[in-house]
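Example 3.
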Amino acid sequence: MTLSGLFRSTTAPRSKRRIGPTIAGLILVGFAVAALLCPWVAPWPYDQQALALAYRAPSPAHWFGTDEFGRDVFSRVLYGARTSLTVALVSISTSCLLGMVIGALCGYVGGRFDRWTMAAIDLTWCFPEILLALLLVAILGPGSTSTVLAIAIAYLAQFTRLTRSQIRALKRETFVEASLSFGAGPAHILLCRLLPNAIAPVIVVAMLTTGDAILLEATLGFFGMGAQPPTPSWGGMMSSGSELLFDAPWVILWPGAAIAVSVVSINVFGDGVLDALDVKKRERVH
Amino acid sequence: MTKYAIRRVLALLPVFLVVTGIVFLLIHLVPGDPIDNLVRAGSDPEQRAAIARAYGLDRSLVEQYLTWMGHLAQGDLGTAIVQRRPVADLIAENIGYSLALGGSALAFSAIVGVLAGVVAASFQDRPLDRMLMGAALIGSTVPSFWLGLLMILLFAVELGWVPVSGARHWTSVILPAATVGLAGMALVARVTRIAMVQTARADFVTLLHANGVSRFAIQSRHLLRHALVPVLTLLSLRIGLIVGGSVTVEYVFARPGLGSLLIRAINQRDYPVIQGCLLMLAVAVMLGTLIGDLLQAAMDPRQREEQRS
Amino acid sequence: MYTSFRPLVWAALALGLVSTNAPADAADATFVLAANQNGTPVLDPIRASLVNLADKLIYDCLVQQAEDQSFHPHLATSWTVTPDGMEWTFELKPGVTFHDGEPFDAETIRWWVPKFAGTENAYLVEAIDRVEVVGPLTVRFVMKHPDANLLYNLSSGFMGIPAPKAYDAAGAEYGTKVAVGTGPYRLERFATGVETVLKRNPAYKWASALSKNAGPAPIDTLTLREIGDPSTAFLEMRTGGVDLVVDVPPATVPRYQTLANAKMQTMPGFGIFYMPINTTVEPFTDVAVRRAVALSIDRREIVDNLYAGKGKAATTFLLASLPEAKVDPKLELVHDPKTAASLLDGAGWKPGPDGIRVKDGKPLVVTLWTQSDTEFKRMTEVIQAQLKSVGIRAEISVFDTSAIRAEYKKGKQQLAVRSYGWNNADILDWFFSGERIGYPNISMWKDDKAEALRLKALKGSRTLDERIANFRAYHEYVLEQVPFAPIYEPVQTIAYNADRLTLPATIRGPQFSAPTVLDITVK
């Protein structure tokens, strides 16, 4: 059994539709809306300092309390959704698209091209994501573009390998051979026959990896290399000093909760999408 | 099978060469140099030039790379510029700690993850399943630097069962291992559960049921064995990550290890150390992937055929 | 060990006293090193680029510096210098032996000084032409040129004296497996980045006058641990895993105050936080704009809120305790937003619609660089807000410590937040020398008058008093030209377990080191 096989659905098709994915989807939409509308929704500017009011516990004026600069944590969590979700989404979609293109080519072409390309791609797999990301951020210089690129490259191997193995498995199936015998060109087969059938597990893994990307951004923040201050990101807020755990737990609790809720929602939603796609899978795109 | 294994090992050699090149290029692309970490701000330019000469830093990258490769071929990893000691010594000093932490973390995520997955699978789609999977998922969303501190607070400070930090006593590995292991456990549990559920639908299981084999026997003897294949693959892929990827945990627990050595070396731009450590990690991951592939091939002959074509 | 202690632990918990891993021997102790001393690669002062507390305990120096920056005899009992500053004669303390039993005498010094040649620390003895042995316990330094800073150099950790035989025998291994000095402790075990285990030197009876105890140290086995995360160090203290934390970060001081058995003692810090201003980049080519930036920093706010009122607002480039820091009060750079605003107005930067000042249609936007450590990032964020309040928008970029130096060398920086740790006025030369543009002269400042004053202070001072006067003049000119803005002078907070240790009333010496450790008693 290949790894990709593991991400197929586990729910029998006859089981009734679950409510979880819908709720998860709604939560994600909520986060997205909050991220879009935060200049109007946030009660305070995210960078307004009031040092005398630092470390205040949650109150009616500051729902989530204030941080070490007396800034409103609620507003910062809202703005942080913007940074964290954007970084995660952009980096994972970049990584996923690139990985699909390379993986599909490798899987379809095979041979020496496949071996060498995969050897190169596997290199990124050799290093722990955080080390790779730290090195890349150092090379590319500070800024959100380098964070996005670093995360995208850190997860590239995973998507490439997955797409490749999907394509290779499908290549042998009868419907592809049938197309070939009807005289379809390689581009047609790759784009219209193989990719649509291979895409589902890749998309699901992409969704699940989005959670990891949010956490990776947080770990980058732990090493001081995340979003540039005063721009808030959930990871950056959580990693701005471990003494916060004792002095003002709310400063880390809320962004932490935001990360947890969004990662869980993404996973549950991903599973739901998987179920839906699995049903379709039975009536293959021919 | 042996032939296949030999071929796979040989195939790693060119990859290894490319890895050395990439590792070398990557760290020299990072701005900054080790000399600034060696001398104090007041030193004069001639002094800096002398140090650069002594370590060959004034030569072209290609020359430096070839020199490094030449030493590497003789099994010499070079001498650290800032840390001033043979890189092999530094790695030898730290790798034991990393293996202890990585190994026990891997064991933790394997045992707890497989157990959770099996239990969840046998209660598929029932509340216990959802609860277990949900808990595992939430556990994996807490960044490890916080998970580590929370663990210290609970088990070392409140309960006093284990030391807070350091690596003086074997008990000090428990908390860091649990912290690293918990993060990886969610995926293991998930994979085990899915593999169990999928295998349960296989024809041979229906046959076993029909033959009147007890549910427990099917679960433990037949299902689990089949389901463990992907779990092993997954775990083998994590070996390298666990050896070098636990640097935040090492930091929080003030533990030595390859991760901390590497991070310190990266911060100081201590090129020989970074090169040596990254190479070690790359080898660990390559071997991990290899073991995974071999395991898969051993279980599934089709894979071997495919590689040959 | 831990299992058998379990019942005890529960009992202790019930009493509210948690002590899971108290050292077995009552005379043992564990200290947590200051974070800036973590990662010392070798315990070899001659080759080291970083010395830590372990070095100070293994090695003794000829001269010992006190907390008021004055110099006191240690392995040298007395010294004389000729009026032209060209010959120094030192009398050495009799009866001193190294940990390996070898004697310490004039021959040791003759072997030692030339050892610096070719190392990064060669500058320490650069002014010494040769060492002459006058008698078994008398040496003379014949100088190439006068060096008014010689006593300071001799008292620095880099000039701890190692044992010649052991040093030459160990070769490259010296400093990692072997480290032999005359100090109150000998090396037992050393693991970079982890811990250093030291054993008391029972023969020690030649402490400097700074410590009351002239004999062996009261603590028998001393473990110096390196713990990066300040919260972990705090939790170790709370559970009795460590007995003393050498440098408690200001943000965690309130935590320690909640511990019943923890006491804290403060000592003057050992450095300055400052903001270099790139004098070659617009708008900071104008000294009025530089001054405006320096005057708009509210140092009091930083001390009170980021450091809980501990430490001082820095108004010059040097530690306030240094004589060269006693400059004309008019030159001190203090918080003065009104003058800052009028200076900016005068320079043509008028308030714009969104509060950011504008000149010729261009907004006053500058870059503000900082390092990735929490302390730097926090201070930088506060300064960003303070600059905004006078109409300057500063955009922060965070670099790691090595990358930021590489960027400084390119010379594109405008403002940056950084710090140094040094208790000598020659730090002015390090950071403002026209010969080191980019890094370490991040201000890229090259000024003919400054260069003349600098060289006079550095090379033209024959005596200590002359050196002080010359450096003060140079310092005053630097303050006048504002190539930097001073920010903060920290204090160092030492926390210790009062149930186990008793500390002397004052921490002697410029840093927490041997004179203090010798006077720490164990209960």
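Chain A is about 70% helix and 0% strand. Residues 63 and 81 of chain A are 17 Å apart (CA to CA).
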